[in-house]
Amino acid sequence: MRDSLPATAASALAVEIAGRRWHVAAQGHDISIPLRFNEAQPTFFGAPPATATVITAGSFVGDVRHGGSCNCSVHTLAPHCNGTHTECVGHITQERLSVRDLALWHLSGALLISVAPEPSGEIAGDQVVSLAALREAIGSATLSEYQALVVRTLPNDSSKLTRNYDEGSPPPYFSAEAMRYVVEQGIDTLVVDLPSIDRAQDGGKLAAHRIFWGMPPGSTSAATVTRKHATVTEMAFIDNSVPDGVYLLNLQVAPFMIDAAPSRPILLPLSPA
After folding, report:
1. At 159, which CATH number?
2. What's the total number of domains in the chain?
3. Which of 105, 167, 224, 270 suits 7 as a labelling partner, its CA being 20 to 30 A distant?
């Protein structure tokens, strides 16, 4: 089981979510995957692993273990493929839009659900987060009362922390019908434990991404986008010890001026006020 921040007594912070007033715990559940450079880590789409290389300059070596005065390294990673990351619509536009500018919702009322993907019915061997599976997981909750949706796919285990998604069966992805439902319910912040909300090899359609950001098929222009400030966080990991239910989501995103950046989503437990 991953290390997580313990849920503590309610703090002085209170919020209103889904028509109810809640006390917010001061500490929460970190659902990002720790990125261990040069060690075991998740990877996707043929990307090389994230690495760290010690800087050397003359007699200086950036490693205290080898006599250096301080530690200093160059870190190389592909945010989309090497761990928990948040992406904006700049992922699929000609314009270089940055997640730093578009990820505006730092605190959101969130519903955490656990979904069992189903056979796609279209491509043999594929599993999808279908509309039926999504609705079953949501149950009696009203999704439109929340700004964020956090999806844990089943089965769920710690292998997701270091999984190579290019090996074995293809990872599940969202059906177009399920993603349309998410958008219709007004979800602006989507967090999933999948490497992508779309099929890895889909001929470049990225249908679920386009639906989520309100972008027509085939378009690459930001002018056609209707949900510019919506964000997708992929490759999270929600330990089984974190129960389904209502949370305050604190989405922390590295201030990189690119379309996707490493991120740290934290679920803050709530108690009735």
Report:
1. 3.50.30.50
2. 1
3. 105
